[in-house]
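Example record for the data management plan.
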Amino acid sequence: KVYAQTADDIQQRIEKYKTQLPEEPTKSVLDRLKLRCSVSQTALKNVQTRVEPVQEKRVNAYKEVNAALTELVTVLEEADIDVTDLKAQATVFKEKTDALVVEIDAYKQAVSDAAELDCNADPLALTAAIQEGRNRLTTIVSSVPDIREHVDNLLKPSLQKVKADLQVQQNAEQAPATDSTEVPATEQGATDATQ
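Corresponding structural encoding:
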């Protein structure tokens, strides 16, 4: 989450962003940025308001799926179903989604910093914060398909295997107990025919 923070916290983040710039912009680029910074910050605020609800929905969906998987694993373990593979895939899914949530929070923080700082006084700070946001967004964009691929190729097959195992167990429990001395009707008919 993005919380109200002190000026020192913001300044520390900005300095960190600046050290991560691949190269420092030239004076002419910084001068142009000073002229355009208020427009850039307005655009950043618009991005914030558009993207925030989408990101929150994604984060909440991942939390719900993780909670459901944890509950499912617990219930299946109590039913003596082998959930080793499912548990491993659910753990990997949780790690991937938790890492994505961290990236989303860092992205939101960088965009917030860029939108709020005094870019006329320090245009390099704006450049650095925007670059940090771009870097985080690149990571987010590449993580989402990776998570989908994990779900499609590993998590869903694990769930299908557990479902099949559960169905076998339920069928075995529902099958009527047969007396071993009784002869099945088809065998009885075959015995009568041979006599």
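Summary line stored alongside the record: Residues 28-157 form one domain.
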